[in-house]
Design brief:
Number of helices of chain A: 9
Helix content of chain A: over 70%
Order of helices and strands of chain A: HHHHHHHHH
Oligomer: homodimer
Shape of chain A: elongated
Distance between the termini of chain A: 57 Å
CATH class of chain A: Mainly Alpha
Number of domains of chain A: 1
Largest interface: A-B, 44 and 44 residues
Chain lengths: ~200, ~200
DNA sequence: GTCTATAGGCAGATAGAC
DNA sequence: GTCTATCTGCCTATAGAC
């Protein structure tokens, strides 16, 4: 039996996901091919079909993994930061980090091509947004209670506003290749939520 | 010579643009084909190439016409509404109208697939955003002067924040098919700019 | 301006050997 | 698990008749 490392080297399936993830986030789901992944990985497209029977299944796996990692990042924020406003700042930083890798949020870019996606992928995109808004709404509710955050309207509405603003800021900033552009909008958003 | 009507019936080129425009705004530029347009129009794809030599040229023409119409709408707002805050509300309504037609802003959806676009189209997408932000910055400057609008930071930064927020609100609202979702974020945005 | 016919390429996908 | 070989379908685009 092969030796197991604590931080294991990725298997083929994971490497496929890594490459595909980058391609989705930079080009969109319909704008990369099995051939793109196969070439980069040094195997054939036929081998890809062994790991993921079709592109729809690959797409689903991509969102699932992305959403899991995002959920972990949110848990990490909850553990590390007690202050609600600090949590919102950290949340915005997650987006900035994605953009810094010259990528768009995966579900943001999938939202743009939503009409062309297979049903299972659509469901997962919506779930991602719902999960994010639920987390944001909780942070906002907490922040209102302990007075570290101020806003008018319902936490749900404001949560969806935060999500929309950050997604939009990424969308517009990326063609300019300008991280400062994103940060300006993010700062403005967070300033409006300061108690 | 054929009789010219005041509000002329569209020629073939314009009808092509009408169909292609709807397809871009719902599916994205790379997710529709000449065949889609040809079928709907009842002609062959070969005929399409007579009007637009290639898809890149069609794409350019689409953005140009879209940007012109948008610029006209902004001029109309300038003519009709003296109040800066009213102008911003009307601006947000332009976006809501697009979304009501189950479409995304053309340049918003093109921003998502920016990396895959031919250079001339990229240039025009950027120009569209720049023009919008220039208009917004002017309205903000005017509104600050006549005290119909209040904000902190530079008009340019706030202008780019408004654009980003509205684009993002469209992007996220469309998968839900929920216009109310967009309106909630837009109202929140405008409320933050009220003097 | 619109057609038929066709080229040439790339897409996702499968069968079957190793 | 990965390969070769192959299929079918769709894509953009062009030549040339009408």
């Amino acid at each position: 039996m092969a030796v197991r490392h604590a931080k294991h080297e990725p298997g083929t399936a994971e490497r496929i996901l890594d490459i595909a993830e980058r391609l989705v986030q930079t080009r969109g789901f319909n704008n990369f091919s099995y051939a793109d992944i196969a070439t980069e990985l040094g195997i054939t497209t036929a081998s890809l079909h062994y790991h993921f029977p079709g592109k729809a299944e690959l797409g689903q796996a991509l969102i699932t993994r992305y959403a899991e990692r995002f959920a972990e990042a949110l848990s990490q924020i909850d553990r590390d930061l007690p202050d609600a406003h600090g949590r919102l700042e950290a949340y915005a930083r997650l987006y900035a980090d994605v953009l810094h890798g010259k990528r768009m949020c995966m579900c943001g870019i999938l939202a743009a091509e939503y009409q062309t996606l297979p049903k299972p992928m659509r469901t997962e995109v919506i779930r991602f947004f719902d999960d994010n808004q639920r987390w944001l709404a909780e942070v906002l509710t907490q922040g209102r209670a302990d007075q570290s955050v101020a806003f008018s309207g319902s936490p749900d509405d404001v949560a969806q506003g935060i999500l929309s603003t950050l997604e939009g800021a990424m969308l517009v900033a990326r063609p300019y290749g300008d991280l400062a552009r994103f940060n300006a909008t993010a700062r403005q958003l967070l300033a409006g939520l300061r108690a």
